[in-house]
Backbone:
């Protein structure tokens, strides 16, 4: 078994880490190595983890990665590719006053459902209460706002807070109507994350788009983990009157 060295990149528990330190210690049976790691995964960037290398399942040291010469010039083709990628990213047939969300979703939109989108885009910080009658498409309106903000790069981390009975409905609506994947955070999902990533995984950092229930979020230690996460870009609360203090 290859023992990693500080500065190397390794794969442990299906994740990529940077080795910070290696501490060998002797026992009566063998020599073990405690390895201090720092996550390189997007959803856990910078998170620390300590493991006993010999006790991990199939850990491996990645091949040596050579860094480019910082004093050398990049080939012209690489610079051209970079410029083209920026151009394609910014390319759009729509102006800033136009909506793209209606053309990105698999929905039939009523004209009144575009008014909340227009109001949201006019706000430097979006804060809206959608109080239409039952059956008039408040979920679609929220999805249109979400889709538009995503398309404009104004949001990334999104949380939908709703009653437990509506979690699956929200997940299905976002996927089928807007092609947006959301993960539901509940007890079963947390157990799955702990089995895959370790007991100290923060479920609220596991994916940029999450759905959870109000009652679940009130429980300890889930609430403490939630409060310790980075801030959210967008919060959607369904049945918001249930969040009012009793």
Residues:
């Amino acid at each position: 078994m290859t023992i990693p060295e500080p500065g190397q990149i390794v794969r442990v528990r299906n994740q990529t880490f940077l080795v910070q330190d290696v501490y060998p210690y002797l026992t009566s049976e063998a020599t073990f190595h405690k390895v201090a790691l720092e996550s390189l995964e997007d959803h856990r960037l910078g998170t620390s983890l300590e493991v006993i290398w010999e006790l991990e399942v199939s850990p491996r040291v990645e091949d040596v990665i050579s860094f480019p010469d910082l004093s050398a010039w990049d080939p012209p083709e690489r610079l051209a590719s970079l410029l083209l990628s920026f151009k394609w990213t910014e390319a759009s047939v729509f102006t800033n006053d136009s909506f793209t969300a209606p053309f990105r979703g698999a929905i039939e939109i009523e004209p009144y459902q575009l008014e909340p989108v227009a109001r949201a885009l006019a706000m430097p910080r979006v804060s809206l209460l959608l109080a239409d009658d039952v059956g008039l498409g408040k979920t679609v309106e929220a999805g249109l706002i979400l889709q538009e903000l995503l398309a404009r790069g104004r949001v990334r981390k999104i949380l939908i807070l709703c009653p437990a009975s509506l979690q699956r409905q929200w997940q299905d609506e976002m996927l089928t109507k807007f092609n947006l994947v959301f993960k539901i955070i509940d007890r079963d999902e947390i157990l799955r994350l702990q089995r895959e990533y370790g007991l100290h995984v923060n479920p609220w950092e596991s994916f940029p788009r999450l759905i959870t229930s109000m009652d679940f979020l009130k429980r300890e230690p889930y609430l403490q983990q939630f409060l310790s996460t980075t801030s959210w870009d967008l919060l959607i609360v369904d049945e918001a009157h249930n969040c009012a203090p009793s």
